[in-house]
Amino acid sequence: MKRVLLKLSGEALAGDKKSGFDEATCMGVARQVKQLVDDGVQVAIVTGGGNFWRGRTSGTIDRVKADQIGMLATVMNCIYVSDIFRYAGMKTEVFTPFVCGAFTTLFSKDAALDALGEGKVIFFAGGTGHPYFSTDTGAVLRAIEIEADAMLLAKAIDGIYDSDPKVNPAAKKYDEISIQEVIDKKLMAVDLTASILCLEHKMPMLVFGLNKENSIVETMSGTFTGTKVTV
Ligand code: UDP
């Protein structure tokens, strides 16, 4: 794989703290991504926002406004992780689908591919730019747009199971499963909108746990122990 989109869930960025950032976790991600970049892989990153805010569970305020706050949370996440990456020796650029003044660059496919060509790790912050969507959907959309070979899905859990392993200790992890089966069985590796996009545009996914030491590098090197989602 020469070009990948790595989706980091917001919770995964928070480590054990569950909210905000865990610097050690983010440094671990940076160290691994640097290894991929040094090996010539082009890497784009989408972060979730759940470590700060989730529109759908915000309660009293209007959903559109709640989702705008959620999208801004992902901008904060990307600015933070991007700067950790710079500290680790990489060049980066953060793109958003809406104008954030001098903080980010407005997304276009051409600008994103140019940045990748310059050896930068690029970040897609702000999701799709629209309420009622998720960063899962934003991630698949951008992976398709930049013609990534696959989407790497780094989660707090180490793959896709037939039931919730926190509730059912006998839950079985899939080594490989088709996206159609993920949809039919409502396994929700990514939400339904994102799953349908993957199906329609044939975007494979590799799902794995971010907590496991070196899991991003392993995913790219063939010693992968998560779940491969085929299309
Ligand atoms: N969000 C949005 N549109 C997008 C992407 C994200 O409105 O295209 C908002 C939404 O409120 C979401 C929050 O940003 O809850 C954080 O994104 P994430 O996908 O991490 O949310 P989660 O799936 O954890 O709710």
UniProtKB/TrEMBL annotation:
One of its GO terms (cellular component) is cytoplasm. Its main location: cytoplasm. Keywords: ATP-binding, Cytoplasm, Kinase, Nucleotide-binding, Pyrimidine biosynthesis, Transferase. The keyword Nucleotide-binding applies. It is an enzyme of class 2 (transferase). Pathway: Pyrimidine metabolism; CTP biosynthesis via de novo pathway; UDP from UMP (UMPK route): step 1/1. One of its GO terms (biological process) is UDP biosynthetic process. It catalyses: UMP + ATP = UDP + ADP. Its EC number is 2.7.4.22. UMP binds at residues 49, 67, 128-135. Residues 2-208 form the Aspartate/glutamate/uridylate kinase domain. It is found in: Cytoplasm. Signal peptide: none annotated. CDD domains: AAK_UMPK-PyrH-Ec (cd04254). Inhibited by UTP. The keyword Secreted does not apply. Homohexamer. HAMAP family: PyrH_B (MF_01220_B). NCBIfam families: pyrH_bact (TIGR02075). Belongs to the UMP kinase family. This is Uridylate kinase. It comes from Extibacter muris. The gene is pyrH.
